[in-house]
Design goal:
The complex is a heterodimer of chains A (about 425) and B (about 300). Helices cover about 25% and strands about 30% of the residues of chain A. Chain A has about 425 residues and is α/β, with parallel strands linked by helices. Chain A starts with 6 loop residues before the first strand and ends with a strand. Chains A and B meet through helix 3 of A and helix 3, helix 8 and helix 15 of B.
């Protein structure tokens, strides 16, 4: 079983017919009909790929790229027009949290009903009930009807039931933003745990950050066709580049389309930032005006949660249009942040390479995987890089050199080289 | 032929392997209707009792003199009426609900993988409960007035109920599938079921048919509910020949109508109804399962 792919998709295509009005459908059925009365939407076109067992694969692509259609096909709720697919093992699908819940019934009743829909008997469900309840943390509401729940609570219940079914292949459609921050981090923990046990995960998200953090591989779909597949970081980078180009035309940034959740409010009991200050790295004094070449520090005042946990911190330097100029995190660099209670974590930029302009520094504190963001905060003051003697244009002072060559055969002097120290 | 008939044998199998889902849907449907109300499940009991009280008052008491001049309250007609109504309304309740069942559960059909041919079944079961409560009211009143008899026909009752359920399910499957393809079905069926109600022997008796239509009465007898409603009445023990209510049209050897010929037996009516029922189930199941893969795209 271990050498067969967990998911194998062969030349799958799916076309939706969009009818302007109900008569179009009838007209097409008539024998004398000679032209189509619908608009064909090719949701998925001739798609082939394989997912090995234990792989975590992310699906990225714009709205209407066919991600959800593909997940629906693999779930088995809709059927491809041509092609075939095979899934090895037990599948659980989270196309929507709480699909199939009845609002008039209590949380307890809904847990059993949902279990039955996923093919789990009542006895089996009874064994897992405590675990589900424990995970959802809805103890005091479990016997209240679902319509009295907040939408976040319904999501929590839905996720808790779904993950309790222990599938071999888990298909998730854009649902990681469930519940409050505390619950989100629990969900992420669950997914990592699931990954660790060698189970297969197919996951679709607009958050490239999530895809990069969770997935090993990624598939980029565009207009139903495979644009690229491969390493998650490579694919998401390519995708992000194409999106930036599109958004330049549309005068919209990637973030506008997928508003990332920025938790500027925070929970006292969880890890958070008490402050973030720009400092002169040599003196340790707060300072916000620098010139290129200065030694700059970003000091994060971190407070760990009441139950201390392993955390990571990161800083992203962005332009005012939210383009990230560069970023660094302790997770990427492999630096442990072992702060119990309060402490400082300082990022040092030995020689500032940014050119004149104003930059926003977004600082964040995250879980140990660098995935779940507990709290994000810009520095007290924006980073202002003042005009220096450097004449270069742009945002960045790149290390560079020139090479000039004469192509004329008549006179071929030695190629001249110049190198300018930074 | 066999190739087309055999797949239907898979239906009981699907039901058997998904009893958990069916039970959940059943309770959801039954309890869901009364959730949040003070009397809760008791509404299932209260509704038929009040309905019967009203029919008894209006048709047994107010209109009684017109039906049988000089007589007092016509309990017999009220019972005749009520037995027809509980049978027909149970059928129309479950079929009307089945009509929208795929669309109402659109979220499930789209997002969760499960055999959706199960969806109309809970409606049928809930409608059977309403029927049974009505039948109990009917039996209590009928026996206390001494109008019902226990006899061999009593053994036909479970069979009649089964045929009734199969017919409701088969017809419900057809409607459920049609409603997904053509959204006008529900509106059309709302009108059609009203007409069907009055075209079935609920308010009128077979003798009236033959008086008005003569040899054309087969037109109304060619109605799946005609044998079923009669079978329900007979199985419940309502065999009183008084007033000629239960006289059925029949011919002698020369083709002349015989007045007052006895009604065909309950077994005959049940048999005809069963043929209709399995015909509907076959059509409904084939139609539904052949289209169900498209449902999630059409809902």
């Amino acid at each position: 079983m271990s050498d067969t792919p967990a998911i194998s998709v062969k030349k799958v295509s799916k076309t939706y017919r969009i009818y302007g009005n109900p008569y179009g459908r009838i007209k097409e059925l008539m024998p004398w009909n000679d032209r189509p009365h619908h608009q064909a939407v090719h949701a998925v076109q001739d798609l082939s790929f394989e997912v090995e067992q234990g792989q975590t694969v992310g699906l990225v692509g714009g709205n209407g790229a066919g991600k959800s259609t593909l997940l629906k096909i693999l779930t088995g709720t809709t059927f491809p027009d041509s092609g075939s697919y095979q899934i090895c093992g037990k599948v659980a699908s989270l196309l929507e949290l709480g699909a199939g819940f009845s609002m008039d019934f209590t949380g307890r009743e809904n847990i059993y009903m949902n279990g039955a829909m996923m093919g789990i008997s009542r006895q089996e469900m009874r064994k897992r009930f405590d675990e589900i309840l424990e995970f959802s943390e809805l103890h005091e509401f479990i016997d209240a009807p679902l319509r009295t729940y907040s939408s976040g609570m319904i999501c929590r219940l839905g996720f808790s039931v779904a993950v309790a079914t222990e599938p071999d292949v888990l298909i998730i459609d854009e649902i990681l933003s469930v519940g409050d921050m505390h619950f989100q981090s629990k969900c992420v923990e669950r997914i990592y745990d699931y990954k660790k046990r060698g189970k297969t995960l197919l996951f679709c998200s607009h958050s490239l950050y999530d895809v990069r953090q969770i997935c090993d591989y990624a598939i980029w779909l565009d207009k139903g066709a495979m644009q690229m597949k491969g390493d998650a970081v490579e694919v998401t980078n390519e995708y992000a580049t194409s999106q930036t180009q599109i958004s330049k035309k549309a005068r919209r940034s990637v973030e506008d389309e997928s508003p990332d959740l920025i938790p500027t409010h925070y929970d006292d009991a969880l890890p958070h930032l008490l402050g973030a200050t720009l400092i002169d790295a040599d003196t340790g004094e707060p300072q916000s005006r620098f010139v290129p070449g200065d030694r700059v520090g970003v000091r994060l005042h971190v407070k760990n949660g009441t139950v201390p946990e392993e955390i990571t911190v990161g800083v992203a330097v962005t332009m005012h249009d939210r383009t990230i100029v560069f970023s660094a995190s302790t997770e990427m660099d492999g630096i442990p942040v072992d702060i119990l209670g309060e402490g400082y974590a300082t990022l040092i930029l030995p020689s500032l390479l940014l050119l004149a302009g104003e930059y926003v520094l977004m600082c964040g504190v995250m879980d140990k995987h660098g995935f779940h963001r507990y709290h994000q905060l810009p520095t007290d003051q924006d980073l202002k890089v003042m005009n220096s003697k450097v004449k270069d244009l742009g945002v960045f002072l790149h290390e560079h050199e020139w090479k000039v060559e004469q192509l004329d055969e008549a006179s071929s002097p030695e190629p001249r080289q110049s190198e300018r120290p930074v | 032929m066999l190739k087309h008939v055999l797949p239907i044998l898979g239906y009981p199998k699907v039901m058997a392997s998904n009893t958990e889902i069916l039970a959940n849907f059943f309770w959801r449907d039954l309890l869901g209707r009364f959730r949040g109300s003070f009397l809760g499940i008791f509404w299932v009991l209260i509704q038929p009792i009040f309905m019967f009280a009203i029919y008894f008052f209006v048709f047994g008491y107010l209109f009684a003199p017109r039906m049988a001049p000089g007589a007092g309250p016509n309990v017999e007609f009220a019972l005749y009426l009520f037995s027809g109504i509980i049978a027909f309304s149970s059928f129309s309740e479950s079929t009307t609900r089945s009509c929208g069942v795929v669309l109402e559960n659109g979220n499930l059909v789209k997002k969760v993988r499960f055999p959706c041919e199960l969806l109309p079944i809970p409606n049928v079961l809930v409608a059977m409960i309403t029927y049974l409560v009505g039948a109990v009211v009917f039996l209590i009143v009928g026996f206390s007035f001494g109008m019902l008899e226990v006899g061999p026909h009593t053994f036909a009752w479970p069979l009649v109920i089964l045929v009734h359920a199969v017919m409701s399910l088969g017809f419900g499957l057809i409607l459920a599938c049609l409603q997904v393809l053509i959204r006008d079905t529900a509106h059309l069926y709302a009108i059609a079921s009203q007409a069907w109600f009055f075209l079935s022997p609920v308010f009128w008796f077979p003798r009236m048919l033959e008086e008005k239509l003569g040899s054309w009465s087969w037109v109304l007898e060619f109605n799946p509910m005609y044998p079923l409603v009669h079978a329900h009445r007979q199985a419940l023990g309502f065999t009183s020949p008084n007033m000629g209510l239960m006289v059925h049209y029949a011919e002698d050897a020369s083709g002349k109508p015989i007045m007052g010929a006895p009604l065909e037996s309950v077994w005959y009516h049940t048999g005809i109804a069963a043929i209709w029922a399995f015909f509907f189930l076959f059509i409904g199941y084939s139609f539904f399962t052949s289209r169900k893969n498209k449902f999630s795209d059409l809902v």
